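Quick start: what a row looks like.
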Amino acid sequence: MGASFFQPVPAAPAGAPVEGYVRPRGFHVVEGDPQCRNWRHYLAEKDGVTTSSGLWESTQGVFAFRFEHWEFFHVISGVVVVTPEGGEPMTLRAGDAMVMEPGFTGRWQVVETMLKHYVTRLRG
């Protein structure tokens, strides 16, 4: 199978993170001064949909957010509490995974510096 059919994503950050990347689209800091880094390992656009994957890390803090994209993520380390608007908090730790649909709104509280694998899809 040729390299164009697969793209491995390392389990640990390697190399420099994406330059100028501080906070994800749609996230607004509510508490603290979380520092975020992104190691993107895959980026492709096809039929008006951009797909991206890699590793994302954030230090402690609280974000309010509205997802504009679809995302699957798997927590590698750390702890985050995700609270959907009008819903109950969900605590995610290493080994937990979640899918977020576009339009998902709520709060994202990083309790312990977290690292996650992610795959996002954004139309248009």
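That is the whole record. Residues 40 and 54 are 4 Å apart (CA to CA). The chain has a mean pLDDT of 87.
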